[in-house]
Design a protein that fits this description.
By secondary structure, this protein is mainly alpha-helical. It is built from seven helices and no strands. Keywords: Membrane, Transmembrane, Transmembrane helix.
């Protein structure tokens, strides 16, 4: 029994949904990244460091490629084209590892970063707005941030998308293998029925029956057979 989407739905339907969601998410993230770079360069008085620019551009390229490959995956799923779906599967795995590494780094920084720094940063931007100050104390209070509920929520924010991404990799990879097998079976059928004519092999001495010899040998003809009247008599 082959792989199914959500245990009972067609695998192809799952791949279509994965490609649509990936196209929307990757395109949205890429658009936000490129717009942010443009805004900082054109509108903001502050400039990004060279390292930040490089990393931002790198992520922009990654998610842009992810959106394009998701579109190819959608088209390939509709047309049942192995090369498109296989390329989409490879891109999904690449994005999964990128997001996995980024999630680990983000979680490490979250746990190592002094929690009062978040509160100070929020208060610096609040100025004299009492509502904003109260919101900063409510959200970024060190005791609140260190609570088990907040920690579990932060971990879930990173883990759940990774699990969904991993499931998408599994679905698309399974469908790519299914299409590859169909292509191989189709090529095998075309090869075996491609107009080759059967030619009977020639016969030789080894292929003839030993009990039905068709050649002449002494005493086979009537004159030399046993009991012939023309033979010698005692």
């Amino acid at each position: 029994m082959g792989a199914k989407f959500l245990c009972c739905l067609p695998l192809r339907l799952g791949v279509l949904l994965v490609s649509i969601v990936q196209f929307i998410l990757n395109s949205l993230v890429a658009a936000i990244i490129w717009y942010s770079l443009w805004y900082v360069h054109e509108k903001s008085h502050e400039d990004l460091s060279t390292r930040t620019k490089i990393w931002t551009i790198l992520y922009g390229v990654i998610y842009s490629v992810g959106g394009i490959m998701a579109l190819f995956g959608f088209i390939g799923t509709l047309r049942k084209k192995f090369s498109f779906v296989n390329g989409f599967a490879s891109t999904l795995w690449y994005l999964f590892f990128v997001e996995f590494i980024w999630s680990i780094i983000a979680l490490v920084f979250w746990f190592l970063e002094p929690k009062d720094r978040f509160l100070r940063s929020c208060l610096n931007g609040a100025k004299d707005d009492q509502k904003t100050i109260d919101a900063c104390h409510s959200v970024f209070d060190p005791e609140h941030i260190n609570s088990a509920g907040v920690i579990a929520g932060v971990i879930a924010v990173f883990v759940i998308p990774l699990l969904l991404q991993l499931y998408g990799c599994y679905l698309v990879g399974a469908y790519a293998k299914k299409l590859q097998k169909k292509d191989m079976d189709r090529n095998m059928i075309l090869t075996t029925s491609g107009g080759f004519k059967y030619t009977a092999a020639g016969t030789d001495d080894d292929s003839r029956p030993l009990t039905q010899h068709d050649g002449l040998y002494p005493y086979k003809d009537t004159n030399h057979s046993y009991g012939n009247n023309g033979g010698h008599h005692a």
